[in-house]
Amino acid sequence: MFTAICPHCGLYQTEKQVRFAGGQGIARCMACGGEYAYRALPLFIVLGASGTGKTTLALRLQREQDRIIVLDGDLLWRQEFLGEGNAAFFSVWMNMALNISQCGKPVLLTMGGMPDDFLNNPQARFFPAIHVLGLCAQEEDLAARLRARPSWRNSASEEFLESMLRYNAAVRQLDPALDTSGRDERACAQEIMDFVQQRV
Question: Mapping DSSP to helix (H, G, I), strand (E, B) and coil, where does residue 108 land?
Fold first, then answer.
């Protein structure tokens, strides 16, 4: 387990100096200078608008492979995370991913956001690399998917549709980005795995 508590002086402090060597991260306590090692694995993020297939593909990857740990970001969402660009939400997930990766497998998160939400987060220093893949869909296809959802999800309102279409357009500009429209689910899942395997 990776913790903010220094094993040398016992101080709880999230600020650490970090360096990487031989597949390990070396965290240095800013108070006492004590150092301790942890497993340093890359973090993978698959981000995109509602309706682009994040949850569907996460479930498939969870069932069909065991090389990476795949988690859906919605699992930890709470209304109290609203505001301030949801920075606290991203911090919680990155800290969770760091701790889970201590089992020796990289973590892949499927969630909303943009690359800078992760790359500029203070928790980013603990990962040797953060790789982001955008998930997008054709505009008409995305709107149809959202309108077809059960009414309790409130996905069909014009305000929500407009916000997701704007977000989808921004994600489409990312490199790399995977367009799921007209694509077989299995093929999309394999493309995500190829993205991971090329970077592990």
Answer: strand
Alpha-carbon distance of 56 to 178, in angstroms, equals: 14
Query: Domain residues for 77?
Result: 41-197
Q: What is the pTM of this model?
A: 0.93
Whether the CB-CB separation of 111 and 74 falls below 8 Å is answered with yes
CA distance 154 to 115: 26
Looking at residue 59, which CATH number applies to its domain? 3.40.50.300
Query: Strands 107-111, 43-48: parallel, antiparallel or unpaired by DSSP?
Result: parallel
The band of 84, judged by pLDDT with boundaries at 50, 70 and 90, is: low
Structure tokens at 75: 């699992």
Give the dihedral of Cα atoms 76, 168, 117, 87; nearest 10 deg: -50
- Chain segment 26-77, per-residue pLDDT in tens: 999 999 999 999 999 999 999 999 999 999 999 999 999 999 999 999 888 8
Name residue, tokens 């969402």. Answer: 77
Task: Work out how many domains the chain is built from and give that number.
Answer: 2
Residues 132-151 have pLDDT tens digits of: 999 999 999 999 999 999 88
